[in-house]
Amino acid sequence: MALPHFILSDARLPLTEEPRPGSDAAAGLTSFGPRGPLRSIPEQIADFLLENYIARATSSYPIFYEPWLRSAYASVFQDAPNISRGNGSNINEPKVYDTFVICLVMAVSLSSTASTKQAQANSMASKLCKQAISHIKQVLTDDFAGIQALVLLHTYAIMNPAVANVYFLAGYIMQACMDQGLHRETSIADSIDRTDLLVQDMRRRVFWTAWELDASCSAGFARPVALRPEDISTVFPSDF
């Protein structure tokens, strides 16, 4: 799956205020060291951001199985056991996918949490997003995991639209969903083991999250949705 280059923007995210040279905020934005912005987050803060994402974001964007998300987080910051992602695969994958996901999870959480020092939070979130996007060619595989990665990127882009054209990105995600047959309940049921209810439910969650994002963007821009409701047979997931 190749994401068209015009969807992403290299523009720096707008800040509510610029940190002054020599200030603590400016130093905090540049002193990442060789590990990059993700691994430079103090463990206590990273733990808080993960819990904040799970508490606030997963109810609106239920695109990952929570135990897998926690295990991916642990695999980035420490060793972790294998846990199913909820899409038929397990965590024994190139670590680049985990890094991509956790970078954007931290970015989404930062953007939705900061009530003070917003410039610093926005700048850090931007750097985390750029670190994630640096892995995008490896992450956007032509499968369900690739769609999950795209939907996660979109959830950050709607908070910081300088990252991507949210309307085009939403439409691209819907096309990927249709290519995978996620808009058809029979396709979801036939593509995997019928006894794996978790995998089926996760596919429904991701599809309806993607459709809601596309519908919201389409309404905001007064443009048509990529997929009309009457063309969808996928049932709602168990948590909806």
TrEMBL record:
Gene Ontology MF terms: DNA-binding transcription factor activity, RNA polymerase II-specific; sequence-specific DNA binding; zinc ion binding
Keywords noted in UniProt: DNA-binding, Metal-binding, Nucleus, Transcription, Transcription regulation, Zinc
A Pfam family recorded for this sequence: Fungal_trans
Keyword Transcription regulation: yes
Domain Xylanolytic transcriptional activator regulatory: 166-240
GO cellular component terms given for this protein: nucleus
GO annotation (BP), single: DNA-templated transcription
Subcellular location(s) per record: Nucleus
Cited SMART domains: Fungal_trans (SM00906)
Source superkingdom: Eukaryota
Alphabetical list of InterPro entries matching this protein: XnlR_reg_dom (IPR007219), Yeast_MetPath_Reg (IPR052202)
Protein name per UniProt: Xylanolytic transcriptional activator regulatory domain-containing protein
Source organism: Fusarium torreyae
Lineage of the organism: Eukaryota, Fungi, Dikarya, Ascomycota, Pezizomycotina
